[in-house]
């Protein structure tokens, strides 16, 4: 199944997998930086509510590694049957793999805790490949769609890792590559739902991993968002400026809106913590404005 760029963009905006801020109220990121959009590709399950419900389920079962994979896969199959957007995306991902990598080349499909599992488990099931369920503590279980495999020795086997999003690929280097190496396998390919174009593909290439993505978070995507009516012209201008120069664009915003930091410090706990981090690290070189 092929999806047009227009349809992919619509899916992202319709499900709020991409959420754009009002032009005068950028989002706070966990790093203590600010920006005009959020990307939550796991919302492509159907909605923010459905995605959060699945995350709650994952948190309940992930410590029992004997049941984690089948329980999550069962829930994903329900979404695949009931939600057209999720079904379209998964079918496109399967088609992309068949066309651009080739199923005969792949021995296993892996996915990392937690959001990768939204996509990796069901794609592995559809393609009939065993799934390596990777955990943040560098442990893993292998689930073949019916039962957990008893042997975790996969020397010489080739693995495709499916991710929800790739930014700098830090989780690959810190967790997923070492976990696969512990099993004796080779992480040969990566397929992300979205690439934020922040150096992840290049970092993976340096590790000998071929990087793929269904969607690129770039100006063209937001051009489509504008043409489809999901964002307005002012939001589009801010995003374009941000893509071209993230730090300087947000620095200039803070100079024009000194009240933004003050208001953030008196907001909810999470927002206040990120604002304090911004000030303490002086991320935007604005000490004289605080």
Descriptors:
Rossmann fold; 6-stranded mixed sheet; about 290 residues; 2 domains; 12 helices; alpha/beta; two-stranded antiparallel ribbon; globular
Describe the fold and architecture.
It is a single chain. The protein has twelve helices and ten strands. The protein is an alpha/beta fold and 290 residues long. The chain folds into two domains: 5-39 and 221-289, no CATH class; 65-217, Rossmann fold, CATH 3.40.50.2020. It has a six-stranded mixed sheet, with helices on both faces. The protein has a two-stranded antiparallel ribbon with strand order 1-4. Strand 2 (27-28) and strand 3 form a beta hairpin. Helix 2 (48-61) runs antiparallel to helix 3. The longest helix is centred in the first third of the chain and has 17 residues, at 84-100. It is globular and about 60 Å long.
Question: What secondary-structure arrangement, pairings included, does this model have?
Answer:
Blueprint: H1 5-14, E1 18-20, E2 27-28, E3 34-35, E4 37-39, H2 48-61, H3 68-82, H4 84-100, E5 108-112, H5 117-127, E6 131-134, E7 140-143, E8 158-166, H6 170-183, E9 186-195, H7 200-206, E10 210-216, H8 219-227, H9 233-244, H10 246-256, H11 259-265, H12 269-281
Parallel strand pairs: 5-6, 5-8, 8-9, 9-10
Antiparallel strand pairs: 1-4, 2-3, 6-7
Helix pairs in contact: 1-8, 2-3, 3-4, 3-5, 4-5, 8-9, 9-10
Instruction: Identify the strand order in the major beta sheet.
Output: 7-6-5-8-9-10
**Strand segment tally:** 10
From the alpha carbons, calculate the radius of gyration and give it in angstroms.
20 Å
How much of the sequence lies in strands comes to: 15-25%
């Amino acid at each position: 199944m092929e999806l047009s760029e227009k349809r992919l963009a619509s899916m992202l905006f319709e499900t709020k997998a991409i959420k754009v801020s009002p032009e005068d109220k950028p989002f706070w990121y966990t790093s203590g930086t600010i920006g005009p959009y959020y990307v939550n590709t796991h919302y492509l399950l159907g909605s923010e509510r459905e995605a959060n419900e699945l995350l709650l389920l994952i948190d309940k079962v992930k410590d029992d590694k004997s049941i984690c994979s089948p329980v999550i896969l069962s829930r994903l199959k329900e979404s695949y049957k009931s939600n057209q957007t999720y079904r379209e995306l998964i079918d496109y991902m399967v088609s992309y793999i068949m066309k651009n990598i080739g199923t005969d080349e792949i021995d296993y499909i892996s996915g990392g805790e937690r959001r990768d599992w939204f996509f990796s488990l069901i794609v592995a099931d559809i393609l009939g490949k065993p799934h390596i369920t990777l955990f943040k503590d560098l442990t893993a279980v292998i689930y073949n769609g019916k039962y957990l495999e008893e042997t975790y020795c996969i020397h010489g086997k080739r693995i495709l890792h499916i991710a929800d999003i790739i930014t700098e690929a830090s989780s690959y280097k810190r967790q997923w590559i070492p976990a696969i190496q512990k099993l004796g396998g080779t992480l040969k390919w990566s397929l992300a739902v979205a690439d934020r174009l922040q150096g992840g593909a290049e970092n993976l290439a340096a590790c000998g991993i071929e990087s793929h993505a269904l969607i690129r978070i770039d100006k063209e995507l937001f051009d489509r968002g504008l043409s489809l009516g999901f964002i307005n012209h002012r939001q589009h201008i801010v995003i374009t400026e941000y893509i071209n120069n993230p730090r300087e664009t947000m620095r200039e915003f803070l100079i024009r809106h000194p009240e933004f930091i003050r208001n953030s410090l008196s907001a909810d706990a999470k927002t206040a913590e990120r604002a304090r981090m911004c000030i303490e690290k002086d991320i935007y070189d604005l000490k004289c404005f605080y």
